[in-house]
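Can you give me the bound-state structure? Components:
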Amino acid sequence: MTEKKKIDRALKLIAGLSIDKSSQVLSKMIKMGASIEMRDVYMADISQLTANRTAEDEKEVVGAFIDLVGDAPFKFLFYVSADDSLVLTDLILRREVGTSKEFDLYSQSAVQEIGNILASAITNVFATDFQISMRPSPPVVVNDYASTIFQEYIMSAALERDEILIIETVFCVVQQDISCRMFILPMQESEKILNYIVSTM
Amino acid sequence: MDTKEEKKEIVVGMADIKVGEAPSVLLTNLGSCIGLCLYDPQRKIGGLLHLMMPSAGAAVNKSELKKAKYADTGIQELLQQLKNIYGVRVSDCSAKIFGGAKILQGNIHNIGMDNDAAVRAILKDLGIRVGACKTGGEKGYKLKFNLETGAVACQIFGEQIQEF
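Here's the bound-state model for the whole set.
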């Protein structure tokens, strides 16, 4: 198996474990079944990746940016369409769906909280399964075009490299027909840790 | 159908350059990056550079430098492509500048402002007139650069489309 394939495998393993944990935590939080599926782990050229996003994703979204800091720095992004963020707000606040009418402080807090919980679930996986110490930074919530949010998310990794490795997942709250995106982006400094995980496989 | 007459929409990603001719439209979305549109109104030829940083600095000597990432190397590369592919000279071009927003408010450093200043300084040195600019703010930009007219439709998130 090539080195790249091994790292892909390590990332898929981390993502798989994180997704299981995140789904459980999120379902409990909104008291509704939430399934998270890994869409892909891929290496992509930054220009091609962002051009594709611009071409296919014009919608307004709300995103939570979180840095996972520690021994293996990662960047985490969770985003949901602006309309669906209102439904999530109602689910979290245990209100009738449809109560939230516009993006406000409550919706901002709801997205912040979901981002925080998902990122914490991932750092827990690092700690319990791989003994890697990590912690999430406070989430920064932004309401903007999906492609703008995605560009800002990959910015710091793109400054270092022309190709980036990214884990893309989609999670769904089936009963409410909500579909959200979650991304995990390993920073260059986490390569050593990924290699360590590869060596234990 | 003659492909030259076909109206093509060409998407420009981050750290990328695309050049074309009428009736094509160049599209991009920006956050803290700058979108620089250069246009030759006589020949209806233009190019769009989506840059991320002011200067390549020491990386300028790297063999596989992604020139479009930086204002200094990116503007040179855009001019080169316009010249090599369409024969456009620097003196034929006018410029329009967009983007450079501060999307993440937690960041202390405002890279968008630095990008904007660097682009303006380089264009001034090259003697390229800046016909329009819309930069700064805290929200993303959506651009459509129409090579038939040279007009750029700019929509800042949450606002109406403005034409420049």
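A couple of observations. The mean pLDDT of chain B is 91. Strands of chain B lie at 9-11, 16-21, 25-30, 34-40, 45-51, 94-99, 129-135, 141-146, 152-156, 161-163.
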